[in-house]
Amino acid sequence: MVFSFDDSQNLLEELRRETSLDLLGVADIRQERNTFQGFPAGLIEAFPLAIVVAVHLSTAVLNTLEDGPNLLYYHHYRQLNSQLDRAACRIAQEIERRGYSALPIPASQIIDWEKMMGHLSHKELARLAGLGWRGRNNLLVTPRWGSQVRLASILTNFPLQPGHPLQRDCGSCQRCLAVCPAKAIKREATAFDHSACYQQLREFSRTRHIGQYVCGLCVKACPGWVDNKNNQE
Predict the structure, then answer these.
(1) What is the distance between the alpha carbons of residues 208 and 193, in angstroms, rounded to a whole number?
(2) Which residues sit opposite 49 in a β-bridge?
(3) What is 161-210 written as a DSSP string?
(4) Contacts for 90 with CB less than 8 Å, ≥ 6 apart
(5) pLDDT interval class at 97 (50, 70, 90)
(6) pTM exceeding the 0.85 threshold for the entire prediction
(7) d(CA 48, CA 28)
(8) Reported confidence tier of residue 34, pLDDT bands at 50, 70, 90
(9) C-alpha 15, offset from chain centre
(10) Phi and psi at residue 114, in whole multiples of 5°?
C-alpha cells in the first residue's frame, strides 16, 4: 500500500490523540545517523526519518521539588517514560502493518551514564523536527512547555514530510543556572558540564534512595516561553 504525505500525517495525528501525546514531529536524520550508538552494522541506513513524540510533565508534581528529586517525581518520571514507550510501540506497529519499517527507541535507555548517552539523542532529533531548541540546561526547550517534556523516537521509512529546526534560543534567560545544584549549567549552552551533572545525579540516587539518576530542578525552572513576558529576566 502506497501512502501519501497527507495520509501518513493523518494517521500520525490520529495515533497522537489516541495515545495522549502532547507533541509529535518528524526529523530528517540522514545527517545525524553517524552519531547513533549500539545498533547492528547497516541497520539504521534503512531509516531516513525519525518520528519524535513528547508528553508534558505534571506541573503539580514538579512543584513538589525543592532541593532535589523526590519519590513523587521519580514515579511520575517512570510513568511518563512508560507512556512514551507504549505510544512509540503502537506507532511502530501501525507503520509496519502498512508495509513500512519502524524501530521504536525507548524514552530513557542510557547506554553510557558518564557521557549521558543513549542509542541516540531524542532531544537532538526533536530539535531537527522543529519541536524546540537545545537550552543551556542541555535539554530540549519547547515554545509551549519549556523543558518540561519527556521524549521518545521512532526511526522509520514511512513517507512523511520532515520539519525544520526553529531559529530560536534561550535569549537572556538564565533561570536554570541559579537552581542547578551541580553548577553544571553555564551561560554558553555548549559549555554544559556533563561530568558534574552525572556526579550530582549519582549522589541524588544514593542519598534520596530513588535508585535512578534523576533530578528535575532545571526542568522545573523552565516552564515554557509562549507569551511569557518574563522569559528574558
Answers:
(1) 22
(2) 28, 156
(3) ------S---TT--HHHHH-TT----SSGGG--HHHHHHHHHHHHHHTT-
(4) 15, 18, 19
(5) very high
(6) yes
(7) 6
(8) very high
(9) 18
(10) -65, -35
* Residue 22 amino acid letter: D
Instruction: For 129-178, write each residue's pLDDT tens digit.
Output: 999 999 999 999 999 999 999 999 999 999 999 999 999 999 999 999 99
Q: What's the full length of the chain, in residues?
A: 233
Using one digit for the tens of pLDDT, what is the confidence trace for 63-88?
999 999 999 999 999 999 999 999 99
Residue 204 and residue 210: Cα distance in Å, rounded?
8
- Rg (the chain; Cα; Å): 18
How far from the centroid of its chain's Cα atoms is residue 154's Cα? 12
- Sorted by where each begins, the domain ranges of the chain are 1-233
The pLDDT of residue 89 = 98
**Closest to 82 measured CA to CA, from 54, 104, 107:** 107
Lookup: cell for 168? 530560536
Task: Identify which of 171, 176, 216 has the alpha carbon closest to the alpha carbon of residue 192.
Answer: 176
